[in-house]
Amino acid sequence: MDILSIFADKLKELMNYSEITEKDLSAAVGTDVSQIRRYLRKECLPSLQNAVRLADFFRCPLDYLFGRAEDFTEQSYPAPPPFGGHFTAFLEKYGCTRYRLSQEIGGLTQCRLNAWAHGKSAPSVGNLIRIADYCRCSLDELVGRDN
Question: What's the pTM value of the predicted model, to 2 decimals?
Fold first, then answer.
C-alpha cells in the first residue's frame, strides 16, 4: 500500500474515532477544509507543518499517522523546533553528513539538504520518511517532536 493510501486511511480512522467532521478538523488545525478533503481522497500528503498539526490534534505520533507504527497511546508532544537547526543537530547525533545522505538516498541533492539545514525550506513528508528509514529512527525524533 502506498503512503497516500496509508495516510488517508489513518486520518479517516482518527476522525471516526474522534467523531470529528472535515470542517471541524480543518478549523482545529488551521487549514482549509478543501485540503482535508484532498488528504482523504488520497490526492496529496500534508506539509510537515500540517502533519505536525494533525498529529498534535489527535495526540498521536507522526509514525502512526503515516503507518510506520501500529498503535499508540494518546499523549502530548512538545512543539518541534525550527527544522533547520534541529536537522543539523540530528545529523550530528547520528554521525551522518548531508553529503552522505545525498549519496546514499537517491533524489536528495546536497542543495536541497542545505536548504533544509539553513531553514530556507522544509522537507516533504515523503523525504522525511526516507531519512527516518535510513537512520532507523522515528519521524518524531527526526523533526524534534519526541519526548
Answer: 0.93
Chain CA centroid to CA 112, Å? 17
Q: What is the pLDDT of residues 35-53, one digit of tens each?
A: 999 999 999 999 999 999 9
The angle at the Cα of 100, spanning 96 to 106, to the nearest 5 degrees, equals: 125
The angle subtended at Cα 98 by Cα 78 and Cα 113, nearest 5°, is: 70
Residue 29 belongs to domain with CATH number: 1.10.260.40
Q: Which three cell numbers stand for residue 36?
A: 482535508
Query: How far is it, in rounded angstroms, from Cα 81 to Cα 59?
Result: 18
Q: Are residues 90 and 124 in the same domain?
A: yes
Name residue 30's amino acid.
Answer: G
Residue 77 resides in a domain:
no
107's grid cell: 533524489
- With the C-alpha atoms ordered 109, 102, 53, 118, is the resulting torsion angle positive or negative? negative
- 113-142 pLDDT per residue, tens: 999 999 999 999 999 999 999 999 999 999
Q: What is the mean pLDDT of the chain?
A: 95
* Angstrom distance (rounded) from CA 87 to CA 92: 9
